[in-house]
Write a structure and sequence with these properties.
This protein has 185 residues and is α+β, with helices and mostly antiparallel strands. The chain has helices spanning 8-15, 68-82, 97-105, 137-154, 164-184; strands spanning 20-26, 29-40, 50-59, 87-93, 109-115, 122-129, 155-156, 160-161. The chain has five helices and eight strands. A six-stranded mixed beta sheet has the order 1-2-3-4-6-5. A two-stranded antiparallel sheet has the order 7-8.
């Protein structure tokens, strides 16, 4: 979904009733934004958990490096704590190594690899359990690598499927291997 072209009302609906958007101003100038959406997870790593999905974080270049995003994230963390969230989630482009390294240092684990919805790149989803993580690091890494291999087999950049046969194979392989990994826990 391309949030850069959404109207204010569309953004409000995307963030949802349980979400919040935090903004930073320098005088009358809007210099940054970050949002969080709270929902119930549906994937293997967040199933039936209350999840806070961080999204749409941006700081105008001239104001980057001043700690503005960190301050907004502190406000977000207070909001998250008030809503009994069990996990934090976020995603970024595969080639955004700077952010991937930052979130890894903060205790996030890469759990899913997927094609970006509106651009010609792949994305990485990362999560942080706010309680005890129910999975081993090896299990999480194996699932991530599996999703990366199957995603690159199935999709060209830009979310273009290679063929229906490859898609069918990848879906079956993902289901089968996921069942085997779940039994190993």
């Amino acid at each position: 979904m391309n949030t850069t072209t959404m109207s204010g009302e569309e953004l409000k609906n995307y963030i949802g009733e349980n979400g919040r958007c935090f903004v930073a101003f320098c005088g009358d100038t809007l210099v940054g934004t970050t949002s969080v959406r709270i929902a119930t997870g549906k994937r293997w790593y967040d199933k039936d958990k209350t999840v806070a999905k961080g999204m749409m974080s941006a700081i105008i270049k001239k104001y980057q490096g001043l700690g503005i995003l960190e301050e907004m994230n502190e406000l977000r963390d207070v909001f998250v704590a008030e809503n009994n969230v069990q996990m934090l989630e976020g995603d970024t482009a595969e080639n955004n190594t700077a952010l991937r390294e930052i979130v890894a240092k903060k205790g996030f684990k890469e759990v899913r690899f997927f094609p970006a919805y509106y651009q010609k790149h792949y994305s990485v989803e990362f999560v942080k359990w706010l309680g005890e993580c129910p999975f081993t690091d090896r299990h999480i890494r194996t699932r991530f690598i599996l999703s990366r291999v199957l995603t690159k087999m199935r999709f060209k950049p830009g979310r273009i499927e290679r063929s229906r046969y490859i898609t069918k194979f990848c879906k079956k392989a993902d289901w089968y291997i996921s069942k085997m990994l779940d039994k190993a826990i």
